[in-house]
Protein: Glycoside hydrolase family 1 protein
Amino acid sequence: MIQIKANQFPEGFLWGSASAAYQVEGGYLDDGKGLTNWDTFVRIPGKTFKATTGDVAVDHYHRYREDIALMAEMGLKTYRFSVAWARIYPSGSGEVNEKGLAFYESLIDECLKHHIEPMVTIYHWDLPQALVDSYGGWESPRIIDDYVAYAQTLFSRFGNKVKYWITLNEQNIFTSLGWLTAQHPPGHFDDRKMFYQVNHHAFMAHAKAVLKYREMGGKGHIGASFAYTPSYALDCRPENAMAKCNYDDLKNYWWMDVYAYGRYPKAAMAYLKEQGIAPRMQPGDESVLRRAAAEITFMGVNYYQSCVCEYNPPDGVTPYGTMNTTGVKGSAQEVGIPGIYKNPANPYLMTTDWDWSIDPVGLQFCCREITSRYGLPIVISENGLGAFDKKEEDGCIHDAYRIEYLKEHLKALARAIQEGCEVLAYCTWSFTDLLSWLNGYQKRYGFIYVDREEEEGAPMTRYKKDSYAWYKEVIGSNGRSLLEG
Structure:
């Protein structure tokens, strides 16, 4: 509401930052780790920018103590990181790899030593290749039991130390890019029926893991993280308002309704049944989803941009336009579903070099929607700016554009909190620079500049960017410096 002035963040607010195992760790075969779907996918020519891989990444596997010391110096309250399934179960199931468990226990202990709350993502896209080879990975319902067994191992080993669990990261993204656009593993194109079936398997894995956590006596926070792109109708024409409604059901509520209510949106399901691509559900699935929905304690949100919705004629654009993975501004193409909606550019917003709209108000908007629709607390599990950062000769990195981006998004988040949204945490993406899945190392997100480019062999020295000192001040004042400035 316009008359509400944000002036503070809640006491105990978790100021954080986030990463993913494949994007930071490296050590891709160290200490018994098995191969993942990403270890194999990146070796397919043309799949990543300049054939970059996560074999070494930014070497967090060997430098995590150095990185966590930098987090502690900043005053970070929480560090969200993912566990590589193939470090724990090199073959996806069967015999556990004790060295993998020992690594994450040491990482967790290092966080706790510095009073940093570990926030653990159980699955952030790196699936053991052995499960893909054995039964197709997420394409088979067999993945559900294997995922739950893996999650149970983490709960058992770390449950007394970890209070925040994220079951799945951006289920909507890894399934869309894996089974619709062929940009992520397994690299399938326009396999819409399998796309929805894979998602159902993922929902069931999430739900059964949540229930297992509670059965084991887990009393912490647990939920999933969703890549939320809130939508605006292009104008007040009814066909464009309906395009927004359709977009929300198919691109947002399809996931969030299952997490929060344990059911699929009715209009979207009717459309999928008419198209012959609705997921097959087994007897008892709906009950499991509903019971798990009653046990989650937050909605995780990865927020980067909003979108515009307009009616798309039957012969209009498809979901398969070119994505900007090079940083050449203006190279992304308009996408949509023929006869349903399309997403034109928003003329009122600036964009990043990767054509992502910059919309701080969208963060406030999505928090309001979640609060109104689901009544759940919110964890902002990712928000950040990817940019071409430059290290000066004196080792300084002046990223005023990142400070401005984060500042405006945090102000919008503060307004949402003042309006009644319960927000538990805010995690930037990311703490250090890292591998951007399809964009290589040129797209930098971190407070810490890592001295490496696409080629391997760099020293990977850590340098603090200007944004590091800025975020340290924000954390130290619990946001007051941000809101009073």
Observations:
- The two ends are 21 Å apart (CA to CA).
- The first helix runs from residue 21 to 24.
- DSSP finds 16 helices and 14 strands in the chain.
